[in-house]
Amino acid sequence: MKDRLLSVAEVAEYLGTTERFPRRLIAERRIVFVKVGRHVRIPESALESFVLANTVSPISPSRGTAYRAVA
């Protein structure tokens, strides 16, 4: 097993959020985590999977369709 276990602070830094967000993901069971005694760690692969699963691709406009700003 070569998967690195990240702390909540490391996950927050990676995601560019506060520590509250990864803690909420853990509390809502929306991300895989490991309990090490009273500490919580998130496997690096689980974080990558979470990011990939929540990545939204842009919508490319179809040919001939122009988008206008609505005033």
UniProtKB/TrEMBL annotation:
Residues 5-53 form the Helix-turn-helix domain. GO terms for molecular function: DNA binding. InterPro entries: HTH_17 (IPR041657), SinI_DNA-bd (IPR010093). The keyword DNA-binding applies. This is DNA-binding protein. The keyword DNA-binding applies. Keywords: DNA-binding.
